[in-house]
Amino acid sequence: MLDIKFIRENKDIVALAAKKKHVAISIDELIALDDKRRTILTQAEALRAEQNLASTKIASAATPEERATLIAGMKDVKTALEKEETELKTIMAEWQNLMLKVPNVPDISVPDGDTDADNREIKTWGTKPEFAFEPADHIKIMESLGMVDFERGSKAHGFRGYFLTGDGVRLCFAIWNFALDFFSKKGFIPVMPPTIVRKVFLYGTAHLPGDVDDFYATQDGDVLAGTAEVPLMSFHSEEVLEASALPKRYLGFSPCYRREAGAHGKDVNGLIRVHEFYKFEQLVLCEANHETSVAFHEELNRNAEEFIEALGLPYHTVINCGGDLGLGQVKKYDIELWVPKEGKYREISSASYFHDFQCRRLNIRYKGEDGKLKYAHSLNSTAIPTPRILVSLVENFQQADGSIKIPAVLQPYMGTDVISKK
Fold first, then answer.
1. Do residues 248 and 153 share a domain?
2. Is residue 111 part of a domain?
3. 269 and 133 belong to one structural domain
4. How does pLDDT run across 211-257, given as a tens digit for each residue?
5. What range defines the domain where residue 358 resides?
6. Per-residue pLDDT tens digits for 48-59
7. Known catalytic residue: 84?
8. Of the listed 234, 305, 388, 392, which one is catalytic?
9. Among candidates 332, 380, 381, which has minimal Cα distance to 113?
């Protein structure tokens, strides 16, 4: 959430930000509503002051007649105050609804564009494999090796259901254990957060109100988190941290749940788009400084790149265009892995920074050296998701006999250098 003072003083910049992110909101309408809110708030405060003064006078009235006159006069004030408070309550609800829809201002380096098709490639790494045989897709390879069962997955779960089996499970555990060691060495504290979270934290992280159709809700109105970012950001909500305790570096590991409501007809087969999966998530809380946020953003993205490079998977990195940014994101990078059978890159990681947008909503502050309270800055980045990474790993390391070569860094965790038919 942006500060209303910032919005008022920079309304043209915020309006351009909304246009760049394709967010339908009128900043002029918000400011007009804020003017009305301020006027009624001032009037209500004046009436409260008058009411308080009248109460003091009643308590010290010299005669019963004087007291009765003051009480009669206070009834009019009370009626006027109740009217103002009722109107203020209505306006505040409308004002808060509009404030939740105001987007963060993207960095000047963010390119214009409407969709992910307009994201700009900024880096490529690795050599795409050349096969002396016709390569298979991950579905055929994994099914033939007893690593996955989609038919029974659909029977148990329905559309996009799957069972990982045998070496499919072992490979995921190998990736998880390598990831835990790799990112722990980067100074991250591992956390296994709850995945059933209060809905308020989806508003706090700016996943709501925009992504309402993509979340599973419980009968109690709570939500199954689609990323560990949500519960990790709740960890320090309503807290005041010491500046010396920053930065906070957390590595969340959790199951994730997404309805993929807007993806009907996309990637209906295989492990690209599934309703439930596991993911490691990097999250940082740091001081309120733009340069510091930028430095951490580059660091988090580079961490994910280094992890992928350690696996030997070809990838490219893109900077997301304005139309592909979330409401709170200032800037975002996507890392996409090469998928040989499709002949295209597929997203595997996203790294974003938010300035104080999320922390302002969640009231995460720290006490600076000057003793003043400031809202912290937040950043997050996918460390690695499973089973999606198996798509690229299996296809890039497939061999002519249908087996899969295991990347060297995973072999100690896997206990073998190849997955082949038993």
1. yes
2. no
3. yes
4. 777 899 999 999 999 999 999 999 999 999 999 999 999 999 999 99
5. 116-419
6. 887 777 677 777
7. no
8. 388
9. 332
How big is the CA angle at 239 (ends 235 and 244), to the nearest 5 degrees?
95
Average pLDDT of the segment spanning 114-137? 96
Catalytic residue among 258, 360, 361, 365: 258
- Among the listed residues 170, 287, 347, 403, the single catalytic one is 347
Active-site hit among 273, 302, 342, 346? 273
Active site residue 302: no
Answer yes or no: is 182 within a domain: yes
CA dist 324 to 27, 184, 215, 357, 413, Å? 21, 30, 19, 18, 37
Which of 101, 136, 169 is the endpoint of a domain? 101
Lowest model confidence (mean pLDDT) among 119-123, 258-262, 408-412: 258-262
Pick the catalytic residue from 254, 293, 350, 381.
350
CA quadruple 150, 154, 159, 164: dihedral sign? negative
CA dihedral 75, 78, 79, 82 (to 10 degrees): -160
Q: Say if residue 31 is in the same domain as residue 79.
A: yes
pLDDT at position 285 over 90: yes
38 assigned to active site: no
pTM of the full predicted structure?
0.90
Q: How far apart are CA 375 and CA 368, in angstroms?
A: 10
Query: What is the rounded average pLDDT of the residues 304-327?
Result: 97
347 is catalytic: yes
Q: Are residues 52 and 146 in the same domain?
A: no
Whether residues 94 and 128 share a domain: the answer is no
Percentage of residues of the chain with pLDDT beyond 90: 82
Q: Is 273 a catalytic residue?
A: yes
Number of structural domains, the chain?
Answer: 2
Query: CATH code at 391?
Result: 3.30.930.10
